[in-house]
Amino acid sequence: MTTAYIVEAVRTAGGRRGGRLAGVHPVDLLARSLDAVLDRSGIDPAAIEDVITGCVSQAGEQAGQVGRMGVLASKLPQSTPAVSIDRQCGSSQQAIQFAAQAVMSGTQDVVIASGVESMSRVPMGSNMTLHMKEGRGHYMSPGVQEKYPGIQFSQFMGAEMVAKKHGLSKDDLDAFAFASHQRAIAATHAGAFEREIVPVEIETSDGTEMHRVDEGIRFDATAEGIAGVKLLSPDGVHTAATASQICDGSSAVLVVSEAALKAHGLTPLARIHNLTVTAGDPVIMLEEPLFATDRALQRAGLRMSDIDLYEVNEAFAAVPLAWLKHTGADPERLNVNGGAIALGHPLGASGAKLMATLVHALHRHGKKYGLQTMCEGGGVANVTIIERL
Length: 389
What we know:
Elements: E1 5-12, E2 15-16, H1 26-41, E3 50-54, H2 66-73, E4 82-85, H3 91-105, E5 110-118, H4 126-133, H5 142-147, H6 155-165, H7 170-190, E6 197-198, E7 200-204, E8 207-211, H8 223-227, E9 247-256, H9 258-264, E10 270-279, H10 288-300, E11 309-312, H11 318-327, H12 340-343, H13 350-365, E12 369-376, E13 380-388
Parallel strand pairs: 1-6, 3-4, 3-5, 11-12
Antiparallel strand pairs: 1-9, 1-10, 2-9, 5-9, 7-8, 10-13, 12-13
Helix pairs in contact: 1-2, 3-13, 10-11
């Protein structure tokens, strides 16, 4: 089977809801990341055989096949195909896996996996709620309701269930959230994100600027301040400070075959070692990365101790903490540059965003294996294992 390589991996710096990226159309935001992988790799744009784009709220400015619109707004020729996919929070991680599968199967040699989400301009869930408000139905069909009577599929409720099941206290979650900000602050000051971030031109009250720094990081965060944030539910343990931040952003990863490396004179950053996706209980929902990781390691013939760095999406603090308890992984190797609690979670862009961070962190730290996993709506989880080259 053909090996799939990552040649380039980029992301925009995150923008807060209504913040520095709110004035950028999501299609143009996606185009910035697509252009960056072309510019940084030096590949001929005409060589790209497909673009796979993850996006969750495919409505409004993200409707009309946002991946294809991104191609048309980018440096890619109009002859470049594109497709938009929704695997909830794991959409662009799945885009990477689909791109890798295309290469590994020999179907294609050069594919860009990407993601975009402007949560400022296309509010989360608006692709569902606008139809519901117009009386045009609900995604919970009679068949689903028959199997899950009286059940509400809720990521927040799932996060609370995960915390309770794994014995996680509010103090545990608060401490993790504070550490996420501290790691993100340290990474930013050390220039750890410079290689992965695509500057985006924005208009501000002071004129034109380049957006280069993740806007969600609270550089003045304190443990006491985080601990003092009001609970989201009186009987729960999560607060807004221990959940991922609403965020605008885009990301892209160039995936190629060995033949393409030689044909285009490309230098790979990593080899894709394993692709795994599993599904489980849609009610507790966010626990599936634990079991998906077990399966991925088994299929890859690796142990947790073999993995040097892990990126586990911080949808809610309970998820990576439960993952640590279940896997016995080393917390010092987890989200070493901070995670979505500090950096933001731009839904459809987060999968490729985390991959960009993981690839460049492996190079920066001189490590070999990296593992990325995401919890996803409906009780699904992706795991991707890569090897730095």
